[in-house]
Amino acid sequence: MVKGVLLLSGGIDSSTLLFYLIEKGYEVHTLTFNYGQRHLKEIKYAKKVIEYAKKIGRVTHRVVDISSIHDLIATGALTGNKAVPKTFYTEKTQMATIVPNRNMILLSIAVGYAIKIKAKEVFYAAHKSDYSIYPDCRKEFVKAIDSAVYLANLWTPVEIRAPFIDMTKAEIVSLGLKLGVPYHLTWSCYEGDERPCLSCGTCLERTEAFLLNNTRDPLLNEEEWLKAVRIYEAMKEEYEGKN
């Protein structure tokens, strides 16, 4: 069985990629990182996804505590003191959610782990919908870091893979619904409250993805889903009116 290392956040994209790799026959070794982010809710949900995934595939999971780097990268809304923007990802204000050099840092650690366990591939769930805001989710970055990893590890080559790089969030959800991904066990919201805020950029994107698939977000009850749709439609109308 081919081994692969996966960055698992506990959100829609990486959870779908986990089930995609299981379906492809991989033995998946997942890493979830505590890097001093705004809340640890995603780690809690990543553990739930893993417990579910273990029923159908060969999966391991490690939570890696690198929270000591927090002071070095504490800026913006996810690691710093800025408020979480309540806008669509297409807004420049969403740049406040960028964590400096995050994917470079996490992928570098994952590559070292892959070499240790003799895995040839490291996966992360960068996708097309993140292109405008997050430079480390673009094809150019994937190509560049893959080349750098090759040069840094000539004797033990590892490939950086981003299978969803040309897919939108809605297309990822469509795939996940076919794969049986337990989306009720995933968390996307940038806020760490008991329930999703429904109005931050990632909540809006999540609502849109399920709407485009004519499916209620299974994380939400009926009342919450109706509220999420109302918020999404109102904010979309406001956004389109400004542009």
Verbal overview:
With 243 residues, this protein is α/β, with parallel strands linked by helices. Helix content is 42%, strand content 11%. The chain contains eight helices and five strands; from the N terminus they run E-H-E-H-E-H-H-E-H-E-H-H-H. Strand 1, helix 1 and strand 2 (27-34) form a beta-alpha-beta unit. The model has no long low-confidence stretch (mean pLDDT 91).
| Low-confidence region ranges | none
- Helicity range: 40-55%
Q: Give the DSSP E fraction (strand runs of 2 or more residues).
A: 5-15%
Q: How many strands, what sense, and barrel or not for the largest sheet?
A: 5 strands, parallel
Instruction: State the helix count.
Output: 8
Mean pLDDT, nearest integer? 91
| Structure summary, number of beta strands | 5
Gross morphology: globular
Based on secondary structure, the structural category is: alpha/beta
Radius of gyration: 17 Å
Q: Helix and strand string, N-terminal first?
A: EHEHEHHEHEHHH
Oligomer: single chain
Strand order of the largest sheet: 3-2-1-4-5
Task: Set down the secondary structure blueprint.
Blueprint: E1 3-7, H1 12-23, E2 27-34, H2 41-53, E3 59-65, H3 70-73, H4 102-117, E4 121-123, H5 139-152, E5 159-161, H6 169-179, H7 201-212, H8 222-242
Parallel strand pairs: 1-2, 1-4, 2-3, 4-5
